[in-house]
Amino acid sequence: MGQKDDFARKxxxxxxxxxxxxxxxxxxxxxxxxxVRAYYELGHRDFGENKVQELEEKASQLRGACPEIRWHMIGxxxxxxxxxxxxxxxxxxxxxxxxRHLLDKLLAAREKLSHPVKLFLQVNTSKEAEKSGFETYSxxxxxxxxxxxxxxxxxxxxxxxxxxxxxxxxxxAARCFQDLNVYKAKLQSELGLRLETSMGMxxxxxxxxxxxxxxxxxxxxxxxx
Length: 225
What we know:
There is one protein chain. The chain has 9 helices and 8 strands. It has helices at 3-17, 33-41, 52-62, 82-86, 100-108, 137-146, 169-191, 205-210, 220-223; strands at residues 23-27, 46-49, 70-73, 91-97, 117-122, 153-159, 196-198, 215-218. By secondary structure, it is of the alpha/beta class. It has one domain: Alanine racemase (TIM Barrel). Strand 4 (91-97), helix 5 (100-108) and strand 5 (117-122) form a beta-alpha-beta unit.
């Protein structure tokens, strides 16, 4: 079986698992532009990168061959990289807006965008010290409020990751995803918003889908043999 046939099989299998409001984000970090293009030619459009420099390079390489590609920034974003990120053609969304300082920097630079970009506020539902993200509802609410009238920056939803350091991996993942849904419902009710969730990776996406995640972020499982 060739690579493209293998990719087609993987894509078909994952799509069969998705509920009606779920979408697949293929995480292409450390993968080649040719691999991204192979999935693009199979009809997929949404790809995520962890580092701005790698995103810039791939976006430049694929601009002509993949004109409808949608790039998602999913890794930790440093404020000094915002201007570089905002120059990426076909930047669609940033899933890792982890604190108010970064959000303010994004808002200050928004006029440099040529088109609207969606933002997901990252929530540290696991409360693990090594993870970034908003940790209280009040901080999250204030951040969401600040995006009203955000111009080309649109609040699209909330993002989280399940607990990593635990012996109860599945239960903890479910708890983290359920907590994010509680935050989402409260924000939607109190601020009159319609939000999506970005949660679930290769090791826990099935749990995320059970918790009605709108975006699952798969990398390893989409490329490994």
